[in-house]
Structures are given as C-alpha cells and as structure tokens.
Amino acid sequence: MGQALSLEVAEHRMLEMGIESWRSGLVGATADCKIATFDVPIGSGVHVPSRKGDADSENGTVPLADSLHIHTAKCTPIGAGDDLSEPRVTPKTWDVDQQELKASDGVPVLLMHGYGSGIAIYSAMLPGMAAQYGGAVYAIDTLGCGLSSRPAADGHWTDLTVRQSEDFFVAGIERWRQAMGFDKVNLVGHSIGGYLAVTYAERYPAHVDQVVTIGCAGLIGVPDGFEDNLRASFPMLAPIVINVWSRGISPFNIMRWGPGHLFFRKYAGRYKALPWFTEIGRFKDYLHSNWTGNHVSAGGYAHITLLAAAGFAHEPLRHRVPHLTQTKSLRMIYGEKDWMDPTHGFALRDELVAASSSPTDPLRVEVATVLQGGHNIVLENPTGTIEALLAALGDATFNDGVYTGLWSPPPPIVVDLATPA
Fold first, then answer.
1. How many CB atoms lie within 10 A of CB 225?
2. Which tens digit of pLDDT belongs to each residue from 259-304?
3. What is residue 417's predicted lDDT score, i.e. its pLDDT?
4. Measured distance CA(32)–CA(18) in Å, rounded
5. What is the Cα 240 distance to its own chain's centre?
6. Which residues have C-beta within 8 Å of that of residue 92, sequence separation ≥ 6?
7. Looking at residue 419, what is its pLDDT?
8. Which distant-in-sequence residues (6+ apart) come within 8 Å of 204 by Cβ?
9. Other C-beta atoms within 10 Å of 341: how many?
10. What is the 3 state secondary structure string of the chain?
11. How do strand 137-140 and strand 109-112 relate by DSSP bridges?
C-alpha cells in the first residue's frame, strides 16, 4: 500500500499539479499563479455537542474552550514584479504575513468544498479563476474538515439539530470573514458547500454580495417512497446503506477501518483520462489523507446532520431560498450529468418567477449548465466551470446558459467490424 502522506503534503502536491497543468496548457488554456496556504485563527467558543446530562449544556451543546483555525488558500495571478524562480505554492504564517494575505481588489471570491473534500478539489480551477476574476480568490477547508480545526466533542455530532449543525459550520465562515476583515464576500459552494453558502446568506445577508452554488446539495427533501424505491432497485446494498446512515456511522470511520486505499484508488481512477491529472496518484493520496489522516469531526457527519440519504435535506433549501430577500441573486451551476438533479434548480427558479407578481419580489434565481461533466464538474471541466462562474459573478447573461469550456475529450475510436482486416 505504501506509507500514507500527510494531508499537508498531499494538498500541496495537488495544488502544484493544478498550476503546472495551466502553465503547460493541458486544460486548453494557459495561466500562472501563486498560492499561499495559511491558517486563520478564529478564536474559541464555538458550540459542540455535549455529553448527555452535562450540567453546563445549553440545549445539548457546550462552547469549546480550544482556539480554532480555518485553513485557507489564497490564489493570485503572477504579476510583473514576481520572482518566477520562487515556488508557486507557499505556506505562510498568519502572524507574519496577514496584511499580504488579507489584501484584495474588490469583493473576494470564497470557494467552499463539498462532503469529504477540501481546498484541493478546486486545484484544476484556481490558476485560471485567479487570472480571469480580477480580485482575490480564496478557498477554505470549512470548520471540522480538512486541515481546519477538527474539534472533538464529548457528545455525538449526530445529536445536534439541523440548526445547531448549520450554526457550527456557519460560525466558522463568519469568524473567518471577520478575521480577514472583509465587509462582503462572493460565496461559491460545491455540493454541501452550496448548502452552507445559502445557509450563511440566511444568517448574515449584509455580508454576502452574491451566492453561487455548484451541484447544490439539500435543495429538496426526501421524496415520498424514496426508501422503498431504493430497496427495490438495490435489494442487497440498500439495507446496508440505510442501516449505516440511520445509526450515525461516518463513512470516514469506515475508510479508516481498512478499505480506504483501495476505494480511493478506484475512485480517483475515474479521472485518469483527464490530461490535467498528470499524476492521478496525487488525487488518491489527497482523498485518502483527508478521510483517514485526522480526527473525524463535524465534517465527517455532515451527511447525516444536514442531509438525509442521497443528498436530500432535512430542512430543504427550496423552502428557504425565497426568504433570501437581501441577497442580490442565487445562481446555480450544474454539470450536465450531475446526480444532484438539475431539474430541482430549474423548478425553484420557475416557482419564484411565477411568484414575482407578489408585493415583495422574491430573490432572483438563475440556473446554468456546464457540459462534459457530472457532479464534480470543478474537476471534470475546469474551464467550463470558470466560464460559468465568471458569468454568474458578473453582469453577463447567465440564466439558461450552457458552458462548454476549452477542452474537449478525444473522439472514441470506432472499429468497423464489417471490414475484413
């Protein structure tokens, strides 16, 4: 199997691979950038689950005394004064470099990852996004995930209510914004990161300019008959999945028990045909280190505390989005083969358009599609995702847009079996 890499090293190698792929044009375009990685201190007092019967408990939670941090990457384009011989990915220290790390022209973009992932999920996008956006592009490991603090709790994370679980993650985002000194941010979230972006906009609308989701999880609740249909379609697998989910077992722990290397080698292998994955083993190492190399905290249980099976929500965003009246817009991006069903995003948009004759106009929701990819479109078509993001964050026409990107897969080899050799 080989010795597992530390998550710090695995992330560094993924970010380097992304930069080199852009410098050599493997994504269909060229760009160059520098990435600073650093930890932003966010203080103590975040609430975590308490042990049952704890006298200091507040509705099942206690404030954490430990000081926490949010792991961050800042990506900026290479400028005329930059030393091209210096490493492109550089760890920085908050106490020494914070003024440089906070500097941003305009409203910064904040990229947030999905379940079981982290900053490096955006590695194939960061150089091109930084080159074209015109402002600072940041990515974070959300609290309880990746290289951010993964606090332990005396109680169990699955004892939290949906609101309490949301508050934990949102507290990390808000404290990060305060520490960075930003008045507003443009929030971009993939999968559960999209769910959290919307949730943050609910809590702190004054500090959000725009919200963009990519393959957003949690848009609708569990459909009637879903579990019965799942059992009928997968009679052997469904009972196991449902049992594991209902018992509050984290997949992180399952991977730690042994199958992690094999599982992530197979999973990462799905992307080996993409030319920017010049060393697919780096992706496998990153995923494996992220899931098995540190304490399983809130991020490892978000699939239960925030969601029901298959990405459906306990408290669906569909019923919450219409109340985001202080947010400029919600723009939703889907891969053309996204298993987070894009029809739900289009349905929400159409419902709000139909309701626009009400005295208070609802939030404008727009939906677009990126071709040549599915749920992980940020990996599968980085240039197409960048095109969609720039349109979503700008004033360009976005609604019903279809974005192709600059890279096309090679055509399949066709063998005419009717022709003799």
1. 9
2. 888 999 999 999 999 999 999 999 999 999 999 987 889 999 998 9
3. 52
4. 10
5. 27
6. 36, 37, 38, 100, 101
7. 45
8. 170, 174, 177
9. 15
10. CCCCCCHHHHHHHHHHHHHHHHHCCCCCCCCCEEEEEEEEEEECCCEEECCCCCCCCECCEEECCCCEEEEEEEEEECCCCCCCCCCCEEECCHHHHHHHHHCCCCCCEEEECCCCCCHHHHCCCHHHHHHHHCCCEEEECCCCCCCCCCCCCCCCHHHCCHHHHHHHHHHHHHHHHHHHCCCCEEEEEECHHHHHHHHHHHHCHHHEEEEEEECCCCCCCCCCCHHHHHHHHCCCHHHHHHHHHHCCCCHHHHHHCCCHHHHHHHHHHCCCCCCCCCCHHHHHHHHHHHHHCCCCCHHHHHHHHCECHHHCECCCHHHCHHHCCCCCEEEEEEECCCCCCHHHHHHHHHHHHHCCCCCCCCCEEEEEEECCCCCCHHHHCHHHHHHHHHHHHCCCCCCCCEECCCCCCCCCCCCCCCCCC
11. parallel
CB atoms within 10 A of CB 287: 24
Q: What is the pLDDT of residue 238?
A: 79
According to the model, what pLDDT value does residue 177 have? 97
Nearest Cα to 200, choosing from 189, 191, 190?
189
Q: What is the mean pLDDT of each run of 10 residues along the chain (421 residues)?
A: 77 97 94 95 93 74 92 91 86 93 90 97 97 92 96 89 96 97 96 98 95 97 86 84 80 83 92 94 95 88 87 93 85 96 94 71 84 95 96 86 81 51 41
User: Which residues are 208's β-sheet partners?
Assistant: 185
